[in-house]
Amino acid sequence: MKEFFEQIKEKVEEIKNRPGTIFGLVFPYFLIVGILIGLYFVSKIEFLSRQKVPPVLRDTVVVADLQMREAKTVPPVNLSEIKNATPQLLSEGETLYKSNCASCHGETGAGGGPASAGLNPAPRNFTSPDGWKNGPKLSQIYITLQEGIPGSAMVSYDYLLPEQKFALAHYIRTNFVPNPPEDSQSDLDALDATYNLSAGQQIPAQIPVAIAKTVIFRENEQYLAKVEAALTKIESSANKNLFSKVTNNGKVALMFLVKNFSNIESEQNFKKIVINNVNQNGFNGNIFNLSEQEWTELYKLITSVI
Ligand code: HEC
């Protein structure tokens, strides 16, 4: 027994004198612990990396209403004529350019007009060939004027007549753009197809939805009180179930009848207009199952309340 302890003591002494052995004995232990921690981490990686804070999305949705626009007739243009810069077109272009464009693009077309200060991107310098977004061809300048350049101070000039847009494009190309590139026939055909140039256009008037709503509301306002009163009377009448059976929306039905009051002077006519407009006028398909007697009751009910 004693010998055994002696032996161990000797061994320990031996090991102490050789640090490499200690390292050799301890190293596998740390290696295994390290690997276990690593495995644990990898097995939980999905949990650890899951986002707690939802990503922030910038609200880039801009809700814009329709623009107020008058109806207009856009006269047709003859592309094979208007593609040539005539003195008449050039002088028309000059007048338009000086009053509409020079404030940003400068009298000399090199940009830097009085209204250009601080604009980013800066108004295009027409005399430099680099960096055009659409380009300096006749058709490309036309597209710029029609659509504007989104995200810049270059707004759309679509209210100008086609001839005026061509006049401007010719003026810029002739006076400012060095060696302006020519349009191919297919460039011009595409322009014609996109904007209906040789056919001309009838553009209908348009008003913003918000204004349309108020107009419709005002038009109906005068009837609204009548409809409300009629609805209350029906609620307290004996035939209120008959009315609710044949209507999807009692208010809409009464509004329809109030507006068409002059057409329901006879039961015959009442029947006709209710049936002809069923599903759009607040009445539903049950109307087709009414007996003659029920029709008469319905008619009496309606005429007694409106
Ligand atoms: C309020 C300042 C302003 C006015 C006024 C203005 N523009 Fe511009 N225009 C710009 C800016 C800014 C750009 C540069 C847009 C860009 O590069 O994104 C530009 C670019 C252009 C381009 C180059 C488009 C391209 O392909 O890169 C043309 C052509 C042009 N304008 C024509 C006109 C004409 C013609 C008028 C007058 C009817 C006019 N602009 C009036 C600010 C203006």
Overview of the structural elements:
There is one protein chain. The chain is 56% helix and 2% strand. The chain has 306 residues and is an all-alpha fold. It folds into three domains: 2-49; 72-203, Cytochrome c-like domain (Cytochrome Bc1 Complex, Chain D, domain 2, Orthogonal Bundle), CATH 1.10.760.10; 209-305, no CATH class. Helix 5 (87-100) crosses helix 8 and helix 10 (209-235) crosses helix 12. The mean pLDDT is 90. It binds heme C.
CATH architecture field of the largest domain? Orthogonal Bundle
Helix-strand pattern, N to C?
Answer: HHHEHHHHHHEHHHHH
Number of strands: 2
Number of helical segments with 4 or more residues: 14
Q: For the terminal residues, how far apart are their CA atoms?
A: 120 Å
Q: Tell me the count of domains.
A: 3
Structural class: mainly alpha
- Which CATH first-tier class of the largest domain would you pick? Mainly Alpha
Q: Order of strands side by side in the largest beta sheet?
A: 1-2
Unreliable spans are: none
Mean pLDDT: 90
Q: Cofactors and ligands present?
A: heme C
Specify Rg, calculated over alpha carbons: 41 Å
CATH topology of the largest domain: Cytochrome Bc1 Complex, Chain D, domain 2
Relevant CATH superfamily of the largest domain = Cytochrome c-like domain
Strand content: under 5%
